[in-house]
Amino acid sequence: MYSAQITRANPTCIILLIDQSASMSDPFSGDAATKKSDFVAEAVNHTLHDLVIRSTKTEEIRNYYYVSVIGYGRKVGPAFGGPLEHRSLAPIADIADYPLQVKMSYKKVPDGSGGWVEIPVRFPVWVQPFAAGKTPMCEALVQVKAILTAWLADHPSGFPPTVLHLTDGESSDGDPLAIGQEIMSLSTDDGAVLLFNCHISSRRSAKIEYPANDSLLIDGFARSLFAISSPLPANFLAAAAQLGVSAGEGSRGFVFNGDPSSIVQFYEIGTSLTGVTPYRWMDEGT
Amino acid sequence: MSSSRFQSQQFLLPKEGHLLSECEDVIGVNALTQRFAIADGATEAFDAQSWARRLARQWVRLDRGALVPDDFRSWVAAEGRSLHDSWKNLQLSWYAEEKARTGSFAAFVGVQLEVELATPRWQAIALGDACLLHCRAGRILSALPLANHESFNASPLLVPSLGLLQDAGLRNIVVDSGVLESGDVLLLLSDAVAAWYLRLAESGDRARCCFEELLMADREDELEQLFSKERRTGRIKNDDIAVLRIELRLP
Would you put residue A115 in left (φ > 0), alpha (ψ -120 to 50) or beta? Predict the structure, then answer.
């Protein structure tokens, strides 16, 4: 299980489901200048960037991944901006070719002899921050299920789709347990659909990351989210270990009261798929 | 290819569902310099096939040198610069440009024979998971840089083309040497087939003999069938396969 090779002929599907309700405009972790929605949009754009670079073969891009970004708040639907607006699922080649905009910046990389050098990098933007309305989580999960059902009809043997759901609050349209379980019951020949949930909080409450049981979860909403979080397959556990995240046999793809670093790790682990976090292979020994 | 003192056979097979032209494993053979090499371009790297081709084919052209770490590092630095120069006039998309910025990566193993010496020997240099196996009468005398099938993983060390990464990236070069006798076989194997072969050897699986017989007889179609079956049953990873077999025929 979870061992199918991801190829152009046998691609996989990744859905990034993001809460865009009004509370996402609150500051994150005490930094008044950064809203939760800003941080999440940046993390989503970074994740899409990584997937594009991973799929780039010299001058062409290979469609190993089909990606969806669904937002829910004032409305529920595709969250891409620009040319991909309204697309509920796009091959990675289209995502590469149609960003909303491409920003230039610099980043520091090791110079190989203990120092650092700055190199220019491009930061494409596909998703912009948005925060308004309630939290129609169930309606959003229904849309996710529809995308997955169509995908699975055409790709019954591939690496199972992965849904990475990020939220900062309770659902405003009911308990997501039933629809979450429906999603988790979908599968390919290689295993069940993976649904991972990351709950974030501006409060300084203790965060709970990748637990194997719900004994530390005190409220009903947290327990519901835990119940609709898939256990991390071995490949994902290997990626978590590479990132120094504490997770083991039976750990669920679930974070509660997560902070900014939780979000970054959640997307890195959730898109590792074959066990290699983006660029880890390149950083070996550096 | 054969000379009076050795004979070699090679076999190259792309991943299932890929064309031979997309294969990123490259074999280098030069009977004059008595050098043999395999380079395996990292699938996720930019222009990996060109980097692997450059490493394998240029290294075997050398009469001498690049067999000890310092010398090898200098040679890699020069080859890396040439590769990056070759990209300068390309019109690249933002993502290709981004990827090119980090350079290319490949595993490498090269062996130099010295069969004219009173005591014939081999010297090898390797980084990553492409392997050299020295076999005598069916026994593996030595294997480098990895010696058992459990040592292979998804994040091997690789030879980087980008100068910025070479100091750190080339710290773990492995060198070794051995004495050769007539009838000895040297096998150079890229990672998937090396892991498969070592596992067969460790478990005494008869498929190893079958593989060697087909290889010696240059029966490519049957080798393809063998690997197709091994891939279907999951006994070998669906990866590019490069095999180079050298048999010594010393007087």
Answer: beta
Residue A40 CB neighbour total at 10 angstroms? 29
Alpha carbons A71 and A18: distance in angstroms, whole number: 5
In this structure, what DSSP letter does residue A206 have?
A: P
Contact call for residues A230 and A253 (beta carbons, < 8 A): yes
Closest partner residue to B238 (CB to CB) among A5, A109, A276 is A5
Give the ipTM: 0.79
From A9, A274, A281, residue closest to B42, measured CB to CB: A281
d(CA B223, CA B229) in angstroms, rounded, equals: 10
**Cα-Cα-Cα-Cα dihedral sign, residues A23, A28, A33, A34:** negative
- What SS3 class is residue B197? helix
List the helix and strand counts (H, then E) for chain A.
8, 16
- With an 8 Å Cβ cutoff, are B98 and A122 in contact? yes
- A181-216 pLDDT, tens per residue? 999 999 999 999 999 999 998 776 788 999 999 988
Q: What is the pLDDT of residues A72-127, one digit of tens each?
A: 999 999 999 999 999 999 999 999 999 999 888 777 765 545 566 677 777 899 99
Rounded to whole angstroms, the Cα distance separating A19 from A22 reads 9
CB contact under 8 A, B164 and A56: no
Partners of residue A286 in chain B, C-beta under 8 Å: 165, 168-169
Classify each residue of B45-71 as buried b or exposed e, where b means 16 or more C-beta atoms within 10 Å of its C-beta: bbbbbbbbbbbbbbbbebeeebbebee
Single pTM value for the model? 0.80
Token pair in block for residue A150: 């169509």
Q: Give yes or no for a contact between A53 and A201, defined as CB atoms under 8 angstroms apart.
A: no
- Contact at 8 Å (CB) between A116 and A108? yes
Per-residue pLDDT, averaged over B111-121, amounts to 94
Residue of A nearest to B161 (CA): A282
Helix (H, G, I), strand (E, B) or coil at A96: helix
User: What single string gives the DSSP state of each residue in A162-200?
Assistant: EEEEEESS--SSS-THHHHHHHHT-EETTEEPEEEEEEE
* Local structure of residue A219 (DSSP, 8 states): S
CA distance A191 to A197: 18
- Determine the Cα–Cα distance for residues B123 and B67; give it in Å rounded to an integer: 7
3-class secondary structure, B162: coil
Q: Which residue has the tokens 């690997």?
A: B227
- In chain B, residues with a C-beta closer than 8 Å to the C-beta of A102 are 94
DSSP-assigned letters across all residues of B37-54: EEEEE-TTSTTHHHHHHH
